[in-house]
Amino acid sequence: MKIFTLARADGFQNAGTSVALGMFDGVHMGHRRIITAAKNKSTELGISTSVLLFSSSPHGAAELLPLCDRLHEMEKLGVHFAYVYDFEELRDKTPEAFVCEAIRDTVHARAAFAGYNYHFGKAAAGDSDALVRLCAENGIACGITERVEALGDAVSSSRIRTLLAAGDIETANALLTYPYYLRAPVLHGKALGRQMGLPTINQAFGAARAPMAHGIYYTKTIIDGRAYLSVSNVGVRPTVEHTESVNLETHILDFDGDLYGKTVTVEFYGKGRGERQFADVAELQQEIARDCERARQYFQK
Questions:
Q1: How many alpha carbons fall within 13 Å on the CB side of residue 22?
Q2: Which of its termini does the chain have fewer beta carbons within 10 Å around, N or C?
Q3: pLDDT attached to residue 164
Q4: Cβ pair 285, 197 in contact under 8 A
């Protein structure tokens, strides 16, 4: 997939695209409906599929996935081009200018798709009805996807953030349609886990990342394309260190190797106990061993 900022896209010519419009934070079930609609239209017209999105939330909302992972998920859906813009680049453009300059002249869209609640242009003055009208005026086909519901309510990024904060990872995964994950380099720690006979890898959540409930999660760690069962702690390690920032500490079952500096993906599947402070390291060690057994039982189900 080719990735452009709006400035770099100037002058780039393509044979026309079918473009999906949105923030696509998390690329959840509702977002996939929009991208799939754009993909189907591109197949019908024999053109490429593209997305036009913000690099980060214009409202400052915490991100479900960083931009690199959002683009990775969209590439897996068959997107050919991604046009990434900063909110400041377009915040003062009228809805009419946005459609003409961004969608028509930069993306070369022959078709555009967005969600029912899509807003664009200065002060978010443009809505889905305005998009349909302006696209028609510029010879661009337009499709609006309806509200997507699952498990009793609308699928939305804000709902998924609430679920993550509550530790309901299984429902969050259902709405995302894939296991929520952190893909990040393995950092050097204090090797306290190894000293306890339970070596761990440490990874950092970005400051912009949506918070997760602290505690133990049943996870899978992907190393060089192979998945290993694992147990992960999201939190500040109150018993041994009490870090200032939230980190992810993972013990990988049935694996022994040096992963420092390697980018590793940890996928979240289920929530175990909450994070708590133990009386001493020995008590913590015993509980982690029980966490490992619970993880094996969880995945056996």
A1: 28
A2: C
A3: 98
A4: yes
Residue 229 in contact with residue 296, Cβ under 8 Å? Answer: yes
Residue position matching structure tokens 């509980």: 287
pLDDT at position 242:
54
pLDDT tens sequence across 195-212: 555 788 999 998 899 999
Record the tokens describing residue 65, joined without a space.
Answer: 């996935």
Tell me the two tokens of residue 140: 């661009």
Residue ranges of domains in the chain, CATH in brackets: 2-150 (3.40.50.620), 179-300 (2.40.30.30)
- The CA distance from 294 to 264, in Å, is 23
* 3-state SS assignment for residue 32: helix
Question: Does pLDDT of 96 surpass 70?
Answer: yes
Other beta carbons within 10 angstroms of residue 11's beta carbon come to 6
- Per the CB < 8 A criterion, the answer to whether 28 and 70 are in contact is no
* 211 vs 273: CA distance, rounded Å: 17
Q: What is 204-233 written as a DSSP string? A: E--TTBPP--SEEEEEEEEETTEEEEEEEE
61 pLDDT above the threshold of 80 = yes
| Amino acid residing at 129 | D
The one-character DSSP state at 7 is H
